[in-house]
UniProtKB/TrEMBL annotation:
Residues 28-165 form the N-acetyltransferase domain. GO terms for molecular function: acyltransferase activity, transferring groups other than amino-acyl groups. It comes from the Bacteria. This is Ribosomal protein S18 acetylase RimI-like enzyme. Keywords: Acyltransferase, Ribonucleoprotein, Ribosomal protein, Transferase. GO terms for cellular component: ribosome. InterPro entries: Acyl_CoA_acyltransferase (IPR016181), Bact_Acetyltransf (IPR050832), GNAT_dom (IPR000182). The keyword Cytoplasm does not apply. It comes from Pseudomonas duriflava.
Amino acid sequence: MTSFVEYDAPDFDRREPQAVRGLVHNPLTLAPANALDAEEMVDFFRAFEEVAFCDWQDTTRLRRILLRDTTLAYVARNRYGTLVGAIIGGLLGTRGTINHLAVSEPYRQRGIGETLVERLIRDMKRQGVRRLFLFVDDDNATGQSFWDSQGFNEARGETTYEKDL
């Protein structure tokens, strides 16, 4: 399991990773994402074939999303400040959604995805969320296995409709 140094301050300057060196062995930082992270997060999510990040989701749009009170997002960075994991979720009354989760291939199987999900769930519970939902592509077996391991269940008897606007 990877060690994390966790920051709650939304204004934590993640561009200076030396501030956390030496606190734990080979630390990763976990911090709330903010508008300054938007461009890097867009590039990060687009690098993953299995993440359904649409062409129209750009830096400006993500920056606006990250500034909303209904958005919860976190980033995990290695000791050099490189983004290695990220999650974005949204609040919909007593329901929440996990929109995107990705962890860099060399950092998988270290508990980073699980830690990001746990942090998101913790903060959603604090906001009064009682149920979470998310979408996983039918051909994303790795994603399906991960979400199964996190205690999520496939919804039965539902059909998803969508429309680009």
